[in-house]
Amino acid sequence: MNIRINMPRLRRDLEELGRIGRDERGGVSRPSFSPADLEARAWLQKKIEEAGLCYRQDGAGNQFGRVACDRRTVMAGSHIDTVPNGGMFDGAAGVVAALEAARRIIEEKVPLKKALEVASFTDEEGNLVGDFLGSRAFLGLLDEKEVRGGRTSFGVPFGEVLKRTGFTAEGILSAHKDRPDLDAYLELHIEQGPVLEEEGVPIGIVERISGKHYRQCAFVGESGHAGTTPLELRRDAFLGLADLALRATQLVATRYYGSMLTVGKAILHPGSFSVIPGRADFTLEFRSASPEALAAIEKEVFALAEDVAATRGLSFASRVVDSTTPVAVAPRILDLLEEECRALDIRSMRLTSGAGHDAQILAGACDVGMIFVPSPDGVSHSPAEGVDWDALEKGANLLLRALLRLAA
Q1: How far is Cα 68 from Cα 76, in angstroms, rounded to an integer?
Q2: Of 299, 313, 349, 358, which residue is least crowded by CB atoms under 10 Å?
Q3: Among residues 76, 26, 108, which one has the least CA distance to residue 406?
Q4: Among 33, 17, 29, which residue's Cα sits nearest to residue 99?
């Protein structure tokens, strides 16, 4: 069946959604449960209902639009929340493309053997209490202690945020009870990197999604006067951090090519001129598409940290903030997407996703697949984030055909 998406309508919807949460710096600031996010949720509900889908929202705020009522379900979607001062395509392109695909199936009155559901998951970006709040709630994978007592990335207790929204910790923790029997989940997304654009290929078919370990760490030494404490007697916590960052990066680059390590944030204490830092708090993140490499990196990096601490007279401590496991996409989904690319005469290539996505979490319940479209200049999480509209049309048509294969 040669159905095509309505590209002018898809683009119009994306641009309309992109105006919600537009900030003074030209980006989109729509963190989950913010006023802008609540406005966007109302917008999405209206669009779902206007399209003729059956709308529902679970206790975690995940939004769904359903076609047909069979319990066995094929799902497609992403998220509409953003990082502060982010772009208008990360996540949103996947939700709007899934909605457009469902609309076209309804308009063409295509009979379905399985239910089809469009999904928008809460807080994929991790602004509340860890990444993937919505999709983890959907699978029943949340830490109850964090939901009930955690703090958001903005320093506000999560419970205070919930009081302003009508959502509750109990509702979030029980959201998985409403989950249908999933057969497959597909997610269209901008690549958030430069590979497709550099290769001149409009479609990326994700074959692996990297896992991530994210830790809050600290080196603790001793503060002292910067002008009177000899260098050889110092217990400088910042030098411990600098030493670890360099040695750990070299380790990952030389032994685990393709994996990543990042120190994304560092705070020195007491943080004054003329005072040796007695404490360095920092984040440490490492990612890999290989479970074995991820485990080895964790072991070796923290052995390095202990060696740095012992050499420099420091103590070292860390705690896990978040972690996800690498995911390999099921061969049946890879084959299906590549077959449909050939049928549409679209060039494609296989890719590994270094970024995490809701599909990574949904892989715990069903086979998943991801379709990437190019990000101009590889930019994402920025007001400069863009999309290749022609490639997005190709990706949305691929999504539509794949959903028809899976559900009809």
Answers
A1: 15
A2: 299
A3: 76
A4: 17
- The Cα–Cα gap between 406 and 389 comes to 25
For the segment 299-349, what is each residue's pLDDT rounded down to a tens digit? 999 999 999 999 999 999 999 988 999 999 999 999 999 999 999 999 999
Of residues 166, 174, 188, the one with CA closest to residue 142? 174
Calculated CA dihedral for residues 75, 80, 84, 87, nearest 10 degrees: 100
The residue written with tokens 């290749």 in the block is 388
SS3 state of residue 16? helix
AA identity, residue 54: C
Q: Which among 358, 344, 339 has a CA at the least distance from the CA of 118?
A: 358
Structure tokens at 347: 């060039």
Dist CA 314 CA 237 (whole Å) = 7
The whole-angstrom separation of Cα 220 and Cα 278 is: 6
Name the pTM for this structure: 0.93
The count of residues in the chain is 408
Q: What is the pLDDT of residue 277?
A: 98
Phi first, then psi: give them for residue 22, nearest 5 degrees: -60, 130
Helix (H) or strand (E) holding 63: strand 63-67
188 forms beta bridges with 371
How do 72-78 and 181-190 pair as beta strands? parallel
229-263 confidence digits (pLDDT tens): 999 999 999 999 999 999 999 999 999 999 999 99
Residue 323 bridge partners (DSSP): 213
Alpha helices in 152-267 (DSSP H): 158-163, 169-173, 195-199, 237-255
Confidence of residue 178 (pLDDT cuts 50, 70, 90): confident
Q: Would strands 72-78 and 115-120 be described as parallel, antiparallel, or unpaired?
A: parallel
What span, in angstroms and rounded, lies between the C-alpha atoms of 395 and 233? 60
Tell whether omega for the bond before 270 is within 30 degrees of 0, i.e. cis. Answer: yes
Helix axes 7-18, 92-107, angle to 10 degrees: 140
pLDDT tens per residue, range 58-94: 999 999 999 987 779 999 999 999 999 999 999 999 9
Q: SS3 for 229?
A: coil
SS3 324: strand
